[in-house]
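Good morning C.,

I know you're traveling, so I'll keep this short. The sequence:
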Amino acid sequence: LADHLCTSYLAGDPDIVKLLDSTRIHLLPSMNPDGWKISTDSGATDYLVGRSNANNVDLNRDFPDLDQIVYDGSLDNNHLMRMVKMKHRIQPETESVIKMIMDNPFVLSANMHGGDLVANYPYDESRSDSPTEYSESPDDRTFRTLARLYASNHPRMSNPSTPGCDSPINEFAQHGGITNGAAWYSVGGGMQDFNYLASNDFEITLELGCDKYPTKDSLSQEWADNKASLVEYIWATHYGVKGMIRDAGTGLGVAGAEIHVRNITRTDRFNRMNADIKHDVTSARGGDYWRLLTPGEYEIIVQAEGYEPQAKLVEVSNEKHTEALRLDFDLETAGDDEDNNFADYNSFPQDLINQQAFQQREEPVGNYLDYAEYAEN
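The tokens, ready to paste straight into the viewer:
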């Protein structure tokens, strides 16, 4: 993927040039290098060998279990790290990835696995004790759209004639090549749900094939099968709306503002939905924000500590390979008796705050919606 993006950019491919000029892309080759070496040294014949790291911990069960905070009745459904009470010492790899997630204003991501062929979306953990229970997130419609986007651009993932890994019928392919994670099997402490509930990021899990260790001579076909899906998925970063949240008096960006969305799409000629999406995102340190949405009509409501709330109406269309609709907010300061006592949604649980890496802070500067200016800073 990295080679394709770079060579296509240098060759002047207009679509890739447009994508890279408007999108910050991070690639993490492996979260578990220990497991990769363990499995490789053992001949890569047993899918269980190398699943864990050198400390014999499955890293995709090692993240703070934020789903349970939601299921236990939390009033909030976003940026829940401040409510975490760690019951175990997380692994160094997990800790590093958490820091990366919290330090960068990611919008969209995917983690890649082997073992099946399906695009899996949140929630990954069941609400009850059932091992297989559809667990819908507030952004279920958006997640299904993202998973379907990947699967539909893959030649086999959504093809009903594709056989299953253990049977001639592929149940996933019969349903478009996608699945709700918990409906498949419940996973607590996974990275997918952690991203969604700890940050602004929307993440899905991609199971890219039945063979966890594809042979060298099959890799070119694996790339060919996933190339279009990967590029289209990256383009989906531009779904919905984006913009700047500024102080109306100074013009400076307002970090940590909360962006709430209400779906008011028409259901017929005379009626509209009135459905709050109970998962808010927050502006980044430069005052920039992104909010993934499916096509429809929405009310976007912004509030920040010390400012009057502000709402705007917008219609989202998600035209192919275009940037998200821009919607800026200039907030007026609130009077002393009108301070909304806004919560700090960027705080961390105390045991992570005490670590040196989490104590580094930067002042909000610049217009971080401008990619060039972000890169320079």
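Safe travels,
E.
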